[in-house]
Write a structure and sequence with these properties.
Helix content is 73%, strand content 0%. It has 29 helices and no strands. It has helices spanning 24-44, 46-49, 56-74, 88-113, 119-141, 143-158, 173-182, 190-212, 214-226, 232-248, 251-269, 273-286, 297-305, 309-338, 351-358, 362-374, 379-397, 406-441, 443-457, 459-473, 479-489, 491-496, 501-513, 523-532, 536-546, 549-559, 569-591, 600-614, 623-651. Helix 13 runs antiparallel to helix 14. The longest helix is centred in the middle third of the chain and has 36 residues, at 406-441.
């Protein structure tokens, strides 16, 4: 009788308890619960049913105050410390942040209507919030993002002394600080609103799935389906981590949870530590670009571009497929090259039994898709319905005899605010602050103009510069924060040059996400390396090889919007087929293996032929001839290898 892997015995990072002593752990739990209830209130529209007129900005102000308080209570002054008690200075900062949020929530309608007369009052609130946000960013996201915020704040103060195109519009301290909190396009603007109202309900949905055992079921069903195939352990990691990564909204936490299961499984199957860690990092990162949720970035993109959510989801399908085709092909070829066996039979659970145990986890996703696509409900409402469905189906069917207890639902609400909600609220406020600075100083228009000037003479150079900017800006942040930042700074110049707006936003999103596996701060790869016991930098380099399509495919869909479903069906189909063939052949060249090991000459030929297939036929004049040449070259190379293998088999 086969023995199932004891997945439930492994604790994920998100399941660990806060190390704070009483009464602070209780306080932070209550604050987290209150923070999570704000998006639930807006998504359910209870306040409208009760006849209460609440400005969205009032809810955002309260959420910001709660987020600041939670961060100062639970996050240590130094990242390498374990916080057990709360020093007096953190308690003071938390109290000030919470009180400032409550005060701003109450006073916002008056401040907005009478801002000219009440600038000193609004400025005082901004003076309190801005330094608290900067320090909260430092504690949660590190110095890389903090440095970016400080640069923008310095520019806001001194930018009027900068000569030339980047000279800022001068504004008084009173005017700037009052606008930061009372202007609807600053701290309380669109980024924070989307994070709180749209993203947090999906965080809650993910928390309920984890409490109900969905992450374990995803891994078990992946094992049952493909565990017996060549390189099955890596393919399990790709499927399980990709599926759950799409919901989690952060590749890093996904690596830290599912990686505890998949990485040891891959190492036991025969993959070395570096490759095992790289597969987990790449799969979890890929979950952030996988529709329909895309780590909640799909909803942000639809809101910012003012287009239908369905259009964003359709645009993401082909690029995500190309990404995972490359990873799957690499896993299969690595297994063939190193004679890696399938997962041991005793670790593969029976398929029928596994399906029977957790088939009902499909229902919440069906509800989500039905609510979004058929009923055209708002994303936050659809997420709330899906979360409620998780609870209902779990109560009705149970997973392995266990049902979500009421205290676990309360725990999911608390964890939504405490274990991620507070961080992304702070980052949303930071993005709003940057937007406010870009508008108040004129820097946004200056940056766009400068990059457009570069792009007018050399589009390739602009794309390269934009990619580097996105990788730098995206280092170490959650998916939603990455997209918010890069869409503000890097997307407008591309759009101004005539690039399809959806393609431009997808381009910057992809390069922001790829920062998670790209040195020097490949945080997802580094976390995976720590679990695998491998070299962090070697794991990051291997992850880039595995996820190479994330560096190439964005350029393809900028040149050919067919790959993001922008065009007629026939052109889209041709672009997809040639792209899949190009990804497959190029991956063989990168790996150095097809049906047998490839020498350097043939390996180079595979890579050249694959890249030729990847060049869109409509990207520039006569590009069709390059694509046709690629078809001819790869046909010759593939045919040669199959014939050589058959001849070798006949002589042995």
């Amino acid at each position: 009788m086969s023995k199932e892997p004891n997945i439930s015995a492994i604790k994920a990072e998100g399941d660990t308890k806060l190390s704070l002593e009483q009464p602070w752990s209780t306080i932070v739990a209550w604050l987290g619960g209150c923070l999570a209830l704000i998006p639930i209130l807006f998504a359910s529209e209870i306040h409208l049913s009760l006849g209460l007129q609440i400005f969205t900005e009032q809810g955002m102000a309260l959420a910001l105050g709660l987020g600041v308080a939670i961060v100062f209570i639970k996050s240590p002054l130094k990242p390498d410390q374990t916080k057990v008690t709360v020093p007096f200075y953190d308690a003071i900062c938390a109290s000030i942040g919470l009180c400032a949020g409550i005060y701003l929530a109450v006073r916002f309608p008056i401040l907005q209507d009478e801002l000219f007369e009440r600038r000193p009052e609004a400025s005082a609130i901004g003076t309190v919030f801005v330094p608290l946000i900067v320090e909260a960013i430092r504690r949660t996201a590190g110095w890389s993002l903090t440095s970016i915020v400080l640069i923008f704040l310095t520019y806001a103060a001194l930018g009027h002394h900068v000569p030339g195109i980047f000279q800022a519009s001068e504004a008084t301290y009173l005017k700037f600080m009052s606008g930061v909190v009372a202007d609807s396009v600053a701290i309380l603007g669109l980024p924070l609103t989307i994070v709180v109202v749209v993203v947090l309900p999906f965080v809650f949905f993910g928390q309920l799935l984890m409490k109900g055992g969905a992450s374990e079921w995803f891994t078990n069903i992946s094992t049952a389906l493909i565990g017996r195939s060549r390189g099955g352990s890596a393919k399990i990691a790709v499927i399980a981590s990709g599926l759950f990564g799409a919901i989690s909204g952060t590749a890093v936490s996904n690596v830290a949870s599912t990686g505890l299961i998949t990485i040891p499984l891959m190492k036991k199957g025969g993959y070395d530590s570096t490759t095992a860690g790289a597969f987990e990092a790449v799969a979890s990162t890929g979950g952030q670009i996988m529709p329909p949720i895309m780590g909640a970035a799909a909803f942000l993109m639809a809101e910012i571009l003012e287009i239908g959510y369905t259009e964003v989801v359709l645009a993401a399908v082909i690029p995500a497929l190309l990404y995972y085709v490359a990873v799957f092909v690499y896993a299969d070829l690595e297994a063939a090259k190193k004679n890696i066996e399938p997962v041991p039979e005793e670790l593969i659970p029976p398929l029928w039994k596994t399906m029977k145990e957790g088939w009902f986890f499909i229902i919440p996703f069906a509800v989500l898709i039905y609510a979004l696509f058929s009923l055209n409900r708002a994303p936050e409402t659809a997420a709330l319905w899906s979360g409620a469905t998780v609870v209902i189906v779990n109560w009705v069917f149970g997973y392995k005899g266990k049902r979500i207890a009421p205290k676990e639902i309360i725990s999911a609400v608390r964890d939504t605010g405490v274990r991620g909600g507070s961080e992304i609220v702070i980052i949303g406020a930071m993005a709003g602050l940057i937007i406010g600075i870009l508008g108040a100083t004129g820097l946004g228009e200056a940056l766009t103009q400068a990059l457009v000037t570069v792009g007018e003479n050399n589009l390739a150079l602009l794309l390269a510069i934009t990619a580097v900017i996105c990788i730098v800006l995206g280092m170490g942040m959650p998916t939603t924060a990455i997209y918010l930042l890069v869409s503000i700074i890097a997307a407008p110049p591309l759009i101004k040059l005539g690039i399809n707006p959806l393609a431009a936003h997808m381009y910057v999103f992809y390069f922001g996400i790829v920062s998670l596996i790209t040195p020097p701060v490949a945080i997802a790869a580094f976390v995976a390396a720590n679990i695998a016991g491998a070299s962090p930098m070697a794991t990051a380099v291997t992850a880039v090889r595995l996820g190479w399509t994330a560096l190439v495919v964005p350029v393809m869909f900028v040149l050919s919007p067919n790959l993001i479903m922008q065009g007629n069906p026939w052109d889209i189909l041709i672009a997809f087929v040639t792209a899949v063939a190009g990804v497959w052949v190029t991956t063989c060249g990168i790996q150095g293996y097809f049906v047998r090991p490839l020498g350097i000459v043939w390996r180079t030929g595979f890579m050249v032929g694959g890249i030729m297939l990847l060049i869109p036929s409509e990207s520039f004049p006569n590009a069709i001839y390059i694509e046709v040449s690629g078809i001819i070259l790869t046909t010759i190379l593939v045919g040669r290898e199959w014939i050589a293998k058959r001849n070798l088999a006949a002589t042995t």
